[in-house]
Amino acid sequence: MLMTAPHPSIGEWYRHTGGDSFEVVAFDDDDGTIEIQYFDGTVEEMDTEDWESQWADRALEAAEPPEDWSGSVDVESTEDTAAGSDISGDETGGLRASSLDGIDLFE
């Protein structure tokens, strides 16, 4: 029985049978390429022919996303650090993109 490969969906997790899980992070239908990222952050490209043949060979399977999503993104755990707070009481831990102080929108 021939197994039909699912369409690779960005944000969905899959696994090499008995191996590492990965997330589809990009799909280019025009080029026929699928960009995948493993939990450790490694990024690879796979073409749709390989995707389909690996599904047919049962070398790929759908997978649940990992509980600890921080593996592929470079973030530090906030559990070990004390969170700071600003005047409004918002706990940001000092992680701000930029300050808009001094900007007068009605000038």
Describe the overall structure.
The chain is mainly beta. It has a domain at 13-64: SH3 type barrels, CATH 2.30.30. The chain has one helix and five strands. It has one helix at 48-56, and strands at residues 13-16, 21-28, 33-38, 43-47, 60-63. Strands 4-3-2-1-5 form a five-stranded antiparallel beta sheet, covered by helices on one side. The model has no long low-confidence stretch (mean pLDDT 77).
The CA-CA distance between the termini, in Å, is 70 Å
How does the helix and strand content classify structurally? mainly beta
- Widest beta sheet: strand line-up: 4-3-2-1-5
Radius of gyration: 21 Å
CATH architecture of the domain at 13-64: Roll
Discrete helix count: 1
Major beta sheet, specifics?
Answer: 5 strands, antiparallel
| SSE string | EEEEHE
Count of individual beta strands? 5
Gist of the model:
With 107 residues, this protein is mainly beta.
Key words describing this protein structure:
107 residues, mainly beta, SH3 type barrels, five-stranded antiparallel sheet
Question: How does the SSE layout of this entry go?
Answer:
Layout: E1 13-16, E2 21-28, E3 33-38, E4 43-47, H1 48-56, E5 60-63
Antiparallel strand pairs: 1-2, 1-5, 2-3, 3-4
